[in-house]
Amino acid sequence: MRYGHFLSAAGATIDEVLAVFMPRGHSYTGLDQAEIFCHGGSQVVRVILDEIVTAGARPAEPGEFTRLAFLNGRIDLAKAEAVAELIAASTQASYEAGREHLIGDYSGYVNELRSSLVAILADIEASIDFSDDEADPVDPGILATALNEVSDKIAQLAATYRGGRIIREGYQVAICGRPNAGKSSLFNLLLDQERALIDREPGTTRDYLSEWIDLDGFAVNLIDTAGIRTDAGRVEKQGQTWSQEIIARADIVLWLADVSLPNWQKNARDDIGGLGVSSIILIGNKIDLVSNWYIEADSNLLSLSCMTKEGLGDLRKTLIEHINEGVRDLTAGQVVTSARHRNCLDRAAKATALARESVEAGESPEITAFELRQSVEALAEITGQVYTEEILGEIFSRFCVGK
Questions:
Q1: Could you tell me the residue range of the domain that residue 134 belongs to?
Q2: Are residues 202 and 310 in the same domain?
Q3: One domain, residues 268 and 350
Q4: CA-CA distance, 124 to 139, in Å (whole number)?
Q5: Whether pLDDT at 390 is above 50
Q6: How many CB atoms lie within 10 A of CB 58?
Q7: Furthest C-alpha separation in the chain
Q8: Quick one: 336 exposed, middle or buried, by C-beta within 10 A (0-12, 13-18, 19+)?
């Protein structure tokens, strides 16, 4: 580390700086690298960068430094992707997942699965290449058991993607119900701000509103949808179409029913029965308008008053329980948050299962070996032992400029 002044090409002092040189093998990229620490104002940074580019350097491509770190063997591809996860993390859960992928044992576990398959493949290929006099034949029962064990582990890891997607992309919560049920009021309460327009007139929300909140360390996307009714106008009907699409994509639906209206129980049952989704929380809103509510309420209903906020705490608690249910089987460091990794694991699990089936069916060992090579290659793609320029381009294009 050296202290000094950064000078322009003309010799003028631009800033008082610190500079550090990191030799090959001891830098982020694994190459010779220098870093300049200047004051943090945007203009001084811009002037220094302009001088460096004028002197012959060029701005880095998105993710170029991390790409160099991968190509120079300092990190594997899964750890390179974890850098982007860590930078993009907006909640405690997404930060912890990114951190564990970067410094934890996720890559090691994937390599362990791959090594298990390679060892099995080596035994099979030895039995193919050498005669019975030169190598012991592979016992089909032992081989099938070993393949089944590895296949189960791969499938179990792939199954963590449901929770991993929630960690990385957020938990999608659709707030739905008939017009004037209090959807926008609940939306505002959960956001703790007046975001949605509220009015007594039904059909106020004709579009949908979407905002993010941090709920117990998880990113939750709240979506306030248009009310569902049959006599809506053209614009409102378009909003209802969007509502139905949002419901189909949501991780959970909060269905609000106005308990101050007659026949609300039957209407709520009919409405929910026609949704075609399984994860629904039925909420009876406006309990402040109903006398003896505790007598009418049932165990399958969450009671709420958006006016008095009674029941809001219970709703938050229930939402957190549903989120934790979705990620209940996740263990630190062994969580699949990438759709690319999930695809690789699915291919590996399928190929390993086909290899086991070929053993059980008594087919030629060449067929078993072919399927195992497919599985080994699929796992190798996760950590970058096997990759293409197209894969690298797709991964690093998502990085911020530079890093």
A1: 92-160+332-396
A2: yes
A3: no
A4: 10
A5: yes
A6: 8
A7: 89
A8: buried
